[in-house]
């Protein structure tokens, strides 16, 4: 049996802090990832090959065609905002048009591709503000939608 090929997108972040000590101040920056547990679970399973695309790489390296996306059996978006997929360099800096990757994901799923959306706290709050629904309602909705996907 062939390995399941997974594209894991996101689950990485950069943090910057400013520290004040009397008259002195300095800043520090860190880059962190949070996908180690998921990769370990995939490794233990033995039948899952996972490619990780960090959040800051997604705008340039996420597939732009259905054919590119269909190289994967499952796409996982983990705690990554839509702008990371919609605002590539050519859109944001050069003012050019580019494929809508969110529509591409929908097309991918409709053609039989697997999709998992792991929503982090920040994005739950962001959706709450945009949609005027509570985080609890959204969690219940996401769980219900996930169950529906599993049944189909």
Structure notes:
- The chain has 152 residues and is of the alpha/beta class.
- It has one domain: Rossmann fold.
- Helices cover 44% and strands 28% of the residues.
- It has 8 helices and 6 strands, in the order βββαβααβαααβαα.
- The protein has helices spanning 36-45, 55-61, 66-69, 83-86, 89-92, 101-110, 121-131, 135-151, and strands at residues 4-10, 12-21, 24-33, 48-53, 74-78, 114-118.
- The strands form 2 sheets. It has a 4-stranded parallel β-sheet, with helices on both faces. A two-stranded antiparallel ribbon has the order 2-3.
- The longest helix has 17 residues, at 135-151.
- It starts with a strand and ends with a helix.
- Residues 131-141 and 143-152 have low confidence and may be disordered.
Task: Map the helices and strands.
Elements: E1 4-10, E2 12-21, E3 24-33, H1 36-45, E4 48-53, H2 55-61, H3 66-69, E5 74-78, H4 83-86, H5 89-92, H6 101-110, E6 114-118, H7 121-131, H8 135-151
Parallel strand pairs: 1-4, 1-5, 5-6
Antiparallel strand pairs: 2-3
Highlighted features:
152 residues; alpha/beta; Rossmann fold; two-stranded antiparallel ribbon; 28% strand
Tell me the series of helices and strands, N- to C-terminal. Answer: EEEHEHHEHHHEHH
Which strand order do you get reading across the main beta sheet?
4-1-5-6
Which CATH class? Alpha Beta
- What is the 3D shape? flat
CATH H-tier superfamily: Class I glutamine amidotransferase (GATase) domain
Mean pLDDT: 79
What is the radius of gyration computed over CA atoms, rounded to a whole number of angstroms?
A: 18 Å
Number of helices: 8
Strand content: 25-35%
Please bin the fraction of helical residues.
Answer: 40-55%
Please give the domain count.
1
User: Low-confidence spans: pLDDT under 50, at least 5 residues?
Assistant: 131-141, 143-152
Question: Pairing-aware structural class of the strands and helices?
Answer: alpha/beta
What gap, in angstroms, lies between the N and C termini?
22 Å
User: What's the architecture in CATH terms?
Assistant: 3-Layer(aba) Sandwich
Looking at CATH, which topology would you report?
Rossmann fold
The beta-strand count equals 6
The major pleated sheet works out as: 4 strands, parallel
